[in-house]
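=== Structure Prediction Worksheet ===
Name of assembly: unnamed complex
Input type: mixed (protein and possibly other molecules)
Chain count: two
Listed entries:
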Amino acid sequence: MVRVKSRYLLCEINVSDRRDLLKLDDRAVAGSVKAAVARTHGDYGAALCSIRFCVKYLNAHTGIVFLRFHKGFYKLLWSALPFITSIECRGQIIPCFLNCLHVGGTIRTCQKFLIRYNTRQLHQMLPKYKNKVEEKRKIQEAILSCSLTGGGNKALEDELESEEEDDE
Amino acid sequence: MSVFMDLNVLFSADRSRLQSLVETAAHLGFSTVAINYVFEPTTKKKQEVPSPVPISELIGHLPVVQGRSRPIKVLNRLTVVMSEASHFRPNATEYRAFDLLAIQPTTEKLFHTTCMLCDVDIICISVTEKLPFFFKRAPINGAIDRGVVFEVSYASALRDSTMRRYTIANAVCLMESCKGKNVIVSSAAEKALELRGPYDIINLYPPADDKCLIGPSHSEGTWKSTLCIRLHETWCVVFLTSLSEGRCLVCQMLTLKKPCLPPAEPFYCMQKPGRLLVALCTPGSVSRTPFRTASVKLLLPNDPNQPDGD
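=== Predicted Assembly ===
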């Protein structure tokens, strides 16, 4: 049985100014990835990028993006990702870079990794909120409610979003 | 347990920039960072070797490394750009304040002297210009025996496409002569946005440099019959320890010292737990020894790209 297989790259977009993250959308990210691949690997790379490449998920609050590539040549396309220096979105150029956290065969494995990663990030944020008891309680609740089901994940994202807004 | 270090982070007088650089490095997973002071002496006027600012003054609170529980370690490093032999004085007292010492030679003769004689840790390969000299095996092997590493930096590749070509060209030349031994990759980052994650860098160089290509799709666990194994040593992103985890599958050819060039196509592969038995057919020797078997030890990576929790 021949099954169509892909590779999902879990990347994190790092920007210097967190407010710029909210301006991103998935078409802008896809466009910049294709441009970087074309610049690095030429016409061959640009052609490979048109086969089964898409941005599956973008979280503008945390800067997490899932990219899907064809299994046969995801490494070639992955090697072009460090050359992304900025993403252009609606006329604005946002300087950033992509950091790949995880490569998975399915979205589910990537999601599992993402939940563990986000839990770790929340743990790291805990010491910063020593004085604010209310925030601390919210973080702890979010950590405890992390799970693979849709409800838990949503609580996590809401929590992260409010934390990052406080961070600024 | 892979430890990643970025040993070239350019010093700038702007404290906040350095602070954000170190924080980004910690977030990406680098356990150690070395702040690089570049010193370029000219014969015209006497210049002072810069003395390193103490770390506690530069960066207030050291951030914790992503995935581990310890804060990031910051070292001091001096790079001397040598255009003449007198520029580098071997036992100068100013050099003792630095943890790491690096040299960037600009001529072939200097490169030879640096590899064989000078007491340095790192030899920088310039990436902003086409190398005016070729690498020779003799000084490179001498340097490898002494424990000196060669450094390639990638920040200029991110800025300009001509620089990218020079970086790749110089890196490929280096790889051909040194077979991948004793090489480190570092960013010469001036801003926090010029840093890249360690797994991205591991993946960056193999397609550019053919010698490093390890083989197709072994992560799936099945070996295709037309597998071409290139002879190469482990590619180091980690400073002075061998990389065995990470995305690449590293094969060490234990017995095959004389390469049958071009690499013969192996047609029989048997996978035992932890070992791969490969039979190669040497071209042109059908009658005497049609098969040469090599037992290759597999160093399998963990599940991809997971930074190890400590």
